């Protein structure tokens, strides 16, 4: 679109201000479309995958784990970063096994989520998983995770009551609610439950 050019910011210079095991922080000087110069600080992230695992008994498998940045125990869908050399599907196969002890015979990519566009380039790939089977992998060292399967209605109630606040999980549960309660939508996506 020609209108998009009116919003484009041009990088003039930049520096990496922090490099960690997972995150890399940058500070750039940019020129705005009106000619004014400004600073932009942002995080480069390797990307992640999240899955909505659906059981034969009609439950979504959520996980409960402590998240240090929030200083809280969070209820989330299984997810994890994409390791070097992995694609999003390989990442979610591994994470599903590590975090839930399951694999999925049916996995369908639903889309992607830009989680925090104001300060990060992170993309989270969203998947649906069903026809689950046992596939235990050891949890990552330092991860303490408890599975918490529940019907979609209970999960959505927790979203509306503010008990589930993780963005990728909230978005995934809204997808799951629509998939499970709208047969035409489910068929259009080619989803098996």
User: What separation lies between the terminal Cα atoms?
Assistant: 39 Å
**Helix proportion of residues, in percent?**
10-25%
Mean pLDDT: 94
CATH level 1 class label of the largest domain:
Alpha Beta
The CATH topology annotation of the largest domain reads as Nucleoside Triphosphate Pyrophosphohydrolase
CATH architecture of the largest domain: Alpha-Beta Complex
Number of helices: 4
Number of strands: 10
Poorly predicted regions are none
Element-by-element helix/strand order:
EEEEEEEHEEEHHH
Beta fraction of the residues?
35-45%
Q: In what order do the strands lie side by side in the largest sheet?
A: 7-4-9-8
Shape: globular
What would CATH call the homologous superfamily of the largest domain? Nucleoside Triphosphate Pyrophosphohydrolase
Radius of gyration, in Å, reads 19 Å
Counting structural domains, the number is 2
Largest sheet: 4 strands, mixed
| Secondary-structure class | alpha+beta
Describe the structure.
The protein has 2 domains: 2-44, no CATH class; 48-189, Nucleoside Triphosphate Pyrophosphohydrolase (Alpha-Beta Complex), CATH 3.90.79. By secondary structure, it is an alpha+beta fold. The longest helix has 15 residues, at 167-181. Helices cover 23% and strands 40% of the residues. A hairpin with a 5-residue loop joins strand 2 and strand 3. The protein has a 4-stranded mixed beta sheet with strand order 7-4-9-8, sandwiched between helices. It has a 3-stranded antiparallel beta sheet with strand order 1-2-3, with no helix packed on it. A 3-stranded antiparallel beta sheet has the order 6-5-10.
């Amino acid at each position: 679109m020609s209108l998009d050019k009116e919003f484009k910011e041009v990088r003039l210079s930049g520096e990496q201000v922090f490099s960690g095991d997972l995150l890399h922080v940058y500070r750039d000087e940019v020129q705005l479309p009106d000619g004014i110069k400004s600073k932009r600080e942002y995080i480069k992230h390797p990307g992640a995958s999240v899955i909505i695992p659906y059981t034969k008994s009609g439950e979504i498998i959520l996980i409960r784990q402590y998240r240090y940045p929030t200083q809280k125990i969070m209820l989330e869908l299984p997810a994890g970063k994409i390791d070097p050399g992995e694609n999003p599907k390989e990442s979610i196969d591994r994470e599903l096994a590590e975090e839930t002890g399951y694999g999925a015979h049916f996995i369908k990519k639903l889309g992607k989520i830009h989680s925090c566009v104001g300060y990060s380039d992170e993309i989270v790939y969203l998947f649906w998983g069903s026809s689950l089977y046992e596939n235990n992998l050891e949890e990552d060292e330092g991860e303490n995770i408890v599975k918490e399967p529940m019907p979609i209605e209970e999960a959505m109630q927790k979203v509306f009551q503010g008990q589930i606040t993780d963005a990728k999980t909230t978005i995934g549960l809204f997808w799951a609610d629509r998939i499970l309660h709208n047969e035409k939508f489910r068929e259009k996506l080619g989803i098996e439950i």
